Amino acid sequence: MAAAMAWLRRGAWGPARRCGLAAGRSYSGGGAYPGVSLSCPLPGVPKAVFAAAEGREQFETRVTLLENGLRVASQKKFGQFCTVGLLVNSGSRHEAKYLSGISHFLEKLAFSSTAQFGSKDEILLTLEKHGGICDCQASRDTIMYAVSADAKGLDTVVNLLADVALQPRFSDEEIEMTRMAIRFELEDLNMRPDPEPLLTEMIHAAAYRGNTVGLNRFCPVENTDKINREVLHSYLRNYYTPDRMVLAGVGIEHEQLVECARKHLLGVEPVWGSGQGKDVDRSVAQYTGGIIKVEKDMSDVSLGPTPIPELTHIMIGLESCSFLEEDFIPFAVLNMMMGGGGSFSAGGPGKGMFTRLYLNVLNRHHWMYNATSYHHSYEDTGLLCIHASADPKQVREMVEIITREFILMAGAVGEVELERAKTQLKSMLMMNLESRPVIFEDVGRQVLATNTRKLPHELCALISQVKSTDIKRVVTKMLHKKPAVAALGDLTDLPTYEHIQAALSSKDGRLPRKYRLFR
């Protein structure tokens, strides 16, 4: 047996084995294998051409500026389907001179009747012919109309996008339906068990009181009846101009997209009239810091067989930087290093179980239900915040734990901890950018803000260069700012804003002691 094994290892079949011949072997039916070599070229068969990784230039984002100021950006991606959309530099931050809630209305009214299409159903039927779906999302600084469909229907898709963005009808019936939808959404927002959207609104309002990104993203209930076609048109006249737009596409040829843009978006007269925006708000975000408190009974938020216990939610934030600054990457690494989540999150290291908010907070303090880090970044400012929730009786202790974590950010950063955060950030970036709609949004937003796009390998290189000294530098700078605080629930034991500010200015992050004469 040993001799047989050695013979096999030496390849003792000789030439027959080396050329891939089926030396004397036969099919189970009895017929012999054909004596053809599998490693030598087959006679009469064309030479095979193998796929190879092409140069990076094949994957660069191409940008073309049209005569009217509209930018057209595209990114190649293999596949039958494409994602194409129109991004507009317009959002709730631009509503200071208007009724708050216009962007919320525009988001809900998107893909309704237009000059060419009589109803939303007609638009959906048109898209169905190309296997398409549509969506509109409004944020604080951008409104995005997007369609995913078969690449063969590109002309139809661009025509539809141009009509939806520039020729909407805004019929009385559609506006009334939108009012109802917004009222329902606002009601749902106040009733849902997860208060994160509400807290995000509150922390922005506290951090940028009454300006730019601090303006309400959701339409206030009192404004739903005031917003009509004339109000919308007066806003669109200023902000829906070609120089504030980007037509972005992923999975299509650039020349084809430019041709469609020229055909459907060049020289088009919008329904509200043409001309450059005369009254555009170019205000730069002014960070103010401050506190917003909402006393609310959270005892019956989620009833049923497994009710959620009554919790008080706190979010503490500090100004970071804009996504255009070099410090944006160190802040992104810091946010990943803090990580966190809910006390019921399960998973291994990839889920963030080794992040600081898990190790130092959730693992040590069993009574805390949540501790999560968030980083919001805009073209002129940014906000790094930590959201925590616990029983109302332990609010003071919870706030002190979070302020201590902010102070510890400026301390020593372990090499293993830093490398893990950088690797996790790169991993998350690359995983997200496998999705076509995510690539589309990345292309559109970057081109809208900078007229160009940093490719994933460039971002990964910048992440790799982050050192522990960079983390310490950005945190030290951040801790000199006034905090922004949002609090929701039973706030009986909430420390004062001055005490939270004092804790973030101290060496150990502890709140000033409270001395009571009577207990």
Q: TL;DR of this structure?
A:
Keywords: Membrane, Mitochondrion, Mitochondrion inner membrane, Transit peptide. The chain has 519 residues and is α+β, with helices and mostly antiparallel strands.
The number of helices is 17
What is the average per-residue confidence, as pLDDT, rounded to a whole number? Answer: 89
This entry's quaternary arrangement is single chain
* Strand order in space, largest sheet: 1-2-6-3-5-4
| CATH architecture descriptor name of the largest domain | 2-Layer Sandwich
**Which CATH first-tier class of the largest domain would you pick?**
Alpha Beta
**What is the CA-atom radius of gyration, in angstroms?**
29 Å
- Terminal residue distance: 88 Å
Total beta-strand segments: 12
| Integer tally of domains | 2
Shape: globular
CATH topology of the largest domain: Cytochrome Bc1 Complex, Chain A, domain 1
Within CATH, the superfamily of the largest domain carries the name Metalloenzyme, LuxS/M16 peptidase-like
Largest sheet: 6 strands, mixed
Pfam families: Peptidase_M16, Peptidase_M16_C
Family: Belongs to the peptidase M16 family.
Subcellular location: Mitochondrion inner membrane; Mitochondrion matrix
Protein name: Mitochondrial-processing peptidase subunit alpha
How would you characterize this protein structure?
The chain has helices spanning 2-9, 15-18, 102-109, 120-128, 154-166, 172-191, 196-207, 229-239, 254-265, 328-338, 356-362, 395-409, 415-432, 436-450, 456-464, 468-478, 497-505, and strands at residues 62-65, 71-75, 81-88, 133-138, 143-150, 245-250, 290-295, 312-319, 340-342, 368-377, 382-390, 484-489. It is an alpha+beta fold. The chain folds into two domains: 61-266, Cytochrome Bc1 Complex, Chain A, domain 1 (2-Layer Sandwich), CATH 3.30.830.10; 290-505, Cytochrome Bc1 Complex, Chain A, domain 1 (2-Layer Sandwich), CATH 3.30.830. Strands 1-2-6-3-5-4 form a six-stranded mixed sheet, with helices on both faces. The protein has a six-stranded mixed sheet with strand order 7-12-8-11-10-9, with helices on both faces. Strand 1 (62-65) and strand 2 form a beta hairpin. The longest helix has 20 residues, at 172-191. Mean pLDDT is 89; it is low at 1-23. Residues 71-220 form the Peptidase M16 N-terminal domain. Substrate recognition and binding subunit of the essential mitochondrial processing protease (MPP), which cleaves the mitochondrial sequence off newly imported precursors proteins. Keywords: Membrane, Mitochondrion, Mitochondrion inner membrane, Transit peptide.
